[in-house]
Amino acid sequence: MKLENEKLYYVGGAVRDELLRRKPLDIDYCFEGDAIKFAEGMDVVKTNPSFGTVRVMWKGKEIDIASTREEVYPKPGHLPVITQLGCPLEDDLKRRDFTINAMARRTTDGQLVDPFNGIGDLEERKIRVLHERSFIDDPTRIIRALKFSVRLGFNLAKNTKRLQDEYLENINYDICWHRMKKELIETFSLNKQKAYDKFVKDGLYKLLGPNQVVPEIKQRSIEAIVKQYPTKYSWLVYLGLFDLSNLELTRPEKKILEWAERLKTEKPSNNTPFESLLIHRLRLESLDD
User: E-strand spans in the chain?
Assistant: First the structure.
């Protein structure tokens, strides 16, 4: 038995990756209507009525199903607020980040719903926002665009690049830093030198906060160092020479950065995180002419 219904769709990245003949990282389901009511009679694990989501156990796996919803951003850069649950599918898709992530496929017959020509942008290998205020509403989409650019080998569409550049000239730092950190971690955990190079060249580092100083790392790629010394904090190795004081850092993350700073004047000890040593190594290389 399949998980299917005429109003049940899988959406976003799963559709994109399927069209690109890539294995999806995960599958997001969306129900055009009330997902919680749809799941009545299933093995329900958890519901969240405020967000219209339900988690069910299906063939030994936990699956999340979301009700279609409309959102507004009451304040630029902050989390959106749901204004309607159970809206038409197209209204749900238009709140998403890029056209290539704003597609859905019906579970019953596989019909593709693509109101913003996402498939055309897939063919042209372009990342395109859905509207002019996209980065103003959610500037973390700039980092998401970087992530997809590196992961998929895509480039920003011309108008999307213009909107990005305009935003980077007038950044709003009153934003959801938790969301920003999440996107930074996902992007730099890919361990791709190209991500760092574009982050610097295109001025995306400005999103970290004002008055950032860009290190000139010349001797060796960060990707090679992280590949040699794998760590779950690889994103900090990439960004540890920037000012990360705006991010909500955990205690281990703070310790890594504190020790990286102490290594300017102190010798390492047995308590020094090895990530701090890597960051300090990159600092020395940036100072080496």
Answer: 8-11, 28-31, 43-48, 53-58, 61-67, 69-72, 81-85, 104-106, 112-113, 126-127, 155-156
φ/ψ (deg, to 5) at 187: -70, -50
Domain assignment present for residue 139? The answer is no
Domain boundary among 109, 132, 155: 132
pLDDT tens, position by position, for the chain (289 residues)? 468 899 999 999 999 999 999 988 788 999 999 999 999 989 999 999 999 999 999 888 899 999 999 999 999 999 999 999 999 999 999 999 999 999 999 999 999 999 999 999 999 999 999 999 999 999 999 999 999 999 999 999 999 999 999 999 999 999 999 999 999 999 999 999 999 999 999 999 999 999 899 988 765 689 999 999 999 999 999 999 999 999 999 999 999 999 999 999 999 999 999 999 999 999 887 765 4
Report how many domains make up the chain: 2
d(CA 272, CA 274): 6
Task: Give the range of the structural domain holding residue 103, as residue numbers without chain letter.
Answer: 1-132
Domain-embedded: residue 286: yes
* Furthest-apart CA atoms within the chain: distance in Å: 68
Regarding pTM above 0.85, the answer is: yes
| Closest residue by Cα to residue 190 from 143, 242, 253, 259 | 143
